[in-house]
Amino acid sequence: MNMVDTHAHIFAEEFLDDLPEVVLRANNAGVKKILLPNIDEASINDLKYSVSQYPDLFIPMMGLHPTSVTSDWKQQLEIIYNELNSSNYIAVGEIGVDLYWDTSLQTEQISVFEEQLKWSAEKNLPVSIHFRSATKEVIKSIKRIGVGSLRGVFHSFGGSKEELDNILQLSDFMIGVNGVVTYKNSGLAQTLIHCPKDRLVMETDSPYLTPVPYRGKRNESAYLCFILNKISEIWNLDVNEVEKLINQNVNMMFGLNII
Fold this sequence. Notes:
alpha/beta
């Protein structure tokens, strides 16, 4: 196996006690690269430390997560932007809009998202987008900044066929599929039948959204194989063929060279 986990928070505190074992299990499962999206200014040091420990496995992104946006967002963005400029990051992320928990800072979230989209265009980097309960708002922002200058992944896709179709109209964007696809009541398997095979990448979103058969436990990148197997079942294709197709998507989006 040569899989890529395109979105995982392996630098989070949930992995402080056993990171070496988590990495070993990922390696043994055939995970070759793990992309790590930043959360906010407070997580930068933990992210960078984890990457320094496993530079051949971890690849960092830099961004400000929508649920971390505060009224002092301009200062937050200054810190994140300076860090983005200080090192090599594979993408701008995790960024977006989240209207599920709290809408009180919706205007600020959208301003922060659009500013980071501008960074993406400026640096020719893909974006990793969080869009919980905010698909329409996110798509409007992408169109305002300029579809032709942007590309990226709608992370943790779990929506309807209509939502999928709306995302697919953005020709340079893909969806990120994680453990939700293994949940019987999610309905995601039926939606993914309609997803073109060149528009999907895999992720775990560790430590969250653990796939069956480990649902309810902490997620980790080694479980990416269960997502691959489920997609293979949905598309009715051999698992090795699906892995190859998805790796082509990953390579195209993130400039990697995974065979």
